[in-house]
Structures are given as C-alpha cells and as structure tokens.
Amino acid sequence: MRHVPARTARYAALLAAALLAAPLSGCGSADPPSAAAPSTAAAQSLRIQDPWVKAADKGMTAAFGTLVNDSDADVTVVGATTDLAPMELHEMAMKDGKMVMRAKQGGLVVKARSTHKLEPGGDHLMLMGLKRPVAAGEQVSFTLTFAGGGTMAFTAVAKPYTGAGEDYAPGHGASPSPGGAAPSASGSAAAGSPAP
Questions:
Q1: Which label site among 11, 51, 171, 181 has the fewest CB atoms less than 10 Å from its CB?
Q2: Which tens digits make up the pLDDT trace of 125-165?
Q3: CA-based diameter of the chain, in Å?
Q4: How far apart are CA 171 and CA 175, in angstroms?
Q5: SS3 state of residue 179
Q6: CATH code where residue 139 lies
Q7: pTM
Q8: With 0-12 CB in 10 A as exposed, 13-18 as middle and 19+ as buried, what is 35?
Q9: Domain for residue 125, yes or no?
Q10: In-domain check, residue 128
Q11: CA–CA separation, 36 vs 30, rounded Å?
C-alpha cells in the first residue's frame, strides 16, 4: 500500500474543487451589469398595442401598431424580422413634392414614457418580397430588435386595407405599393383600424 502525503492530497482536493466550481461561476448574478443593461431593461418595458399587418397576395406589405415605452429611458428599434419576408424599418418623407417611402435611418426611437405610432402614411415595418400570400385573419409573428441588444416578439393579425398609391425612394424597388395598395399618405386610418 502506497502512502500519499497529506500535502499532495490537499492539492488534489483543491484542484478538483476549482475544476468543479469553474463552470458554475458563469451562472451567478454577482457580475456587474454591462453597459447595454439600461437599454435592454428599457426594451423589456416596450410593448405594442393593436398590431396589424396589411393582407397581401404578393410583393410587399407593411405592419402597424402603437409602440408603448413604459420605461424612463428612450428605446430604439433597429430591426424587425418575420418568416414571411425580409424586413426594413420605413418612414414616409417628402421628396420632390410628393410622399415617398424610404428606409428609416437610425431606427425608430420610442421616447421614455411615450408612444410611437406605426401607421399608414408614417413610420411602419415593411415586408419586402413576400414568400407567400398573407390572408386576412391570419396571425403573423414578428420580432423587433433593439439597440444595445434585446428583442421583443409579437403577433399581428392580417387585415384588408386599401389606400392611396405611394412611390418608393430610389433603391427601394419599382413596385409602387406594398402588397398591391400602399398605405394612405394622409394617414387617415388609425393604427389597428384599417379603412374599408
């Protein structure tokens, strides 16, 4: 029988304990919050009211609703995704005397303790090149991505909507409207209640 010196046994025990504890150290919450934490916390306070998407057979369409920020910090939406199509954040802007749709630079900022409407004729979530038709009554899943990290998933109901035609800014395709008929440039229909 071999005798193991006490010193060697202690080192072996300490080494074993350190190796077992190492994977668990990442599970604790004692680490200080990262610089993105305020943005992520604010993003968790964001919600959407009355989300809807324009029903469309092909081409492009758009999603709308009211973003509500219940936090004390501004939240910036920098992207959106769905399985139906590639997406862009869009805005309406005057160009050469008429309203055109274009990508929204810098994202959608929802001020602290405020709302930001996504509506026909204003800011909206654009679905570019539908992979399949979006039928009225269908539930469509979306995910918003925030500056500094964090995401928010929501479901929007597809609704029929007819509005005035709008032109795209250069570089945003030749189709004059999302899904066949663009949202009204006047924005007369309220988010969540499409015009007949």
A1: 171
A2: 999 999 999 999 999 999 999 998 899 999 999 999 987 45
A3: 96
A4: 11
A5: helix
A6: 2.60.40.1890
A7: 0.66
A8: exposed
A9: yes
A10: yes
A11: 16
